[in-house]
Backbone:
C-alpha cells in the first residue's frame, strides 16, 4: 500500500445464540470473520457489546 491508499470501512454486529456454548460461539464468530475475509475485508477490531451476546467487528479494505 502507498501513502495515497484510500480505505473503505465496514462495521458488522455479530449476534451469538443465547443457548450456544463457547465452542458454538467461537465457530459463529469464525464463520462471520471468514465470510468477510472472502469479500476482501481485513479485521481491525472485535469488541464485545456489554450486556449482550453480540460482538462488533470493524473491517477495512483498500478502495
Residues:
Amino acid at each position: 500500500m502507498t501513502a495515497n491508499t484510500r480505505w473503505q470501512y465496514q462495521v458488522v454486529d455479530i449476534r451469538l445464540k443465547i443457548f450456544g456454548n463457547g465452542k458454538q460461539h467461537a465457530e459463529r464468530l469464525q464463520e462471520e470473520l471468514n465470510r468477510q475475509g472472502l469479500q476482501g475485508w481485513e479485521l481491525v477490531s472485535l469488541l464485545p457489546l456489554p450486556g449482550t451476546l453480540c460482538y462488533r467487528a470493524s473491517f477495512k479494505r483498500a478502495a
